[in-house]
Amino acid sequence: LVLPPPPNLPRPAAAATAAALAAAPSAALCQVSPTTQWLLESCVPLGSVSMGLPGLAAQYFFLSPLTTMSQIRTDGTVGSRPLLPYSAMFVNGSTWVAYGLLAGHPAIWLANVPGAVLGAIYFATYVRYCPPGATHLPGTVTNHYLGAAAFLCAVAAASLGLPEDQAATVVGLMGNVIVLVMFGGPLAAMKQVIQTKSTAALALPVAIATVVNCSLWTTYGATVTGDPYIWFPNGIGALFGVAQVALFARYGIHR
After folding, report:
1. What is the chain's alpha carbon radius of gyration, rounded to the nearest angstrom?
2. pLDDT at 188
3. Model's pTM, two decimal places?
4. How far apart are CA 8 and CA 232, in angstroms?
């Protein structure tokens, strides 16, 4: 997950960020040392921009489903795995690319391009190996196509039809919604895991990546920026990840 780091945003991005956070306080919940702030914010230079450990964790999260995709190809079926984590990753990455372009902040859109591209690949791979008529995704493949198309059309409409500062605010808030959907996606399989006492419907690498990624972004949002639009959705995402890891601890790793 790569949510926008608010310091030093150029206008009109600064105006958009201020508008998005107008309803919530932005004071850091606690202070950290300069070294810790550097690790969280700018320890990885990428040309004229930089990112910290949360940015690296986001790439780990985007890559974590590769083992699951390999297993799906080997098995020739998606089994009981849900589609939602992958369709949501595609929409999430695309939404934050749009926000980064609107805000004029390459650290946002550049970091989310892999999420959009890989999410689309995972989406397509899943659909290829999904049994006809499957309804456990949740819903159907058609539901996911229509949902993704409707959400991205709304993002495009806001991006092209609103003044730039308002568009950035609207798209940023929409990004927060899809972040929660993406990290909560695997929870669609939790009821089945509990009923069958098997974790076949979950992926341990994704669960671990969710915990690491969300924990780092929660820490960054709470200590460096004090931005609730960063620490709140990521805090919820971390809890979702912990719940998945707890199921693996309870029922073991399905092989």
Report:
1. 18
2. 67
3. 0.75
4. 21
